Hints:
190 residues; alpha+beta; 9-stranded mixed sheet; two-stranded antiparallel sheet; 4 helices; 11 strands; 21% helix
Amino acid sequence: MMKKFRQAKAMRELWQPVEITVPGGRSLEDLIAAGGYAKVDPDISEEHFPSPENASDVRRMIYFFRFDHRRFNQILKRFVTLSYIVGRMRRDITRGYVPMGIRELLAVGEKFKSLCPLVALGDVWEYSFSNIIMTPLGKPKDVPTTVYAVPCIFEAGGSRELGLRRFFVAPEAQKWETDWRFGAIDNSGR
């Protein structure tokens, strides 16, 4: 019983708010290298996630949101939509939480190597490609397909990876498993 209590307490302490410094003068590649990831998605680049120009170091307080409903029922795995997640972050107007971006994600990943899975909903890379499908009459039809890619840190095969979670639906309809953690910035200036 005491061991379970200590494990639960350790999890609560692990996900307390953290204060980080988001380096303004470092490139995205430097931040990725400092995180020590076993694998990095090649689409996480300056081209898709450009760094702000003339940015200086910024201290941020990062809060973590988790919507784990499975503690009540270990069998069913539930999902939450992106609009629900962002709505919960922003519902307390006095706090002013906004989803963190990729630079905050990489700064947290550099400082805290054990925090995963963690998602940065503040930066979404949107791209399109041409998709050829066959109509019921057997004729090819060109259908443009939009993809929304969200940066995240996760564990796969026992190692920590930096990747993109891709969705083929609009952001408000995206569904996330409830065991993901979503980083938010305290934007109230405290």
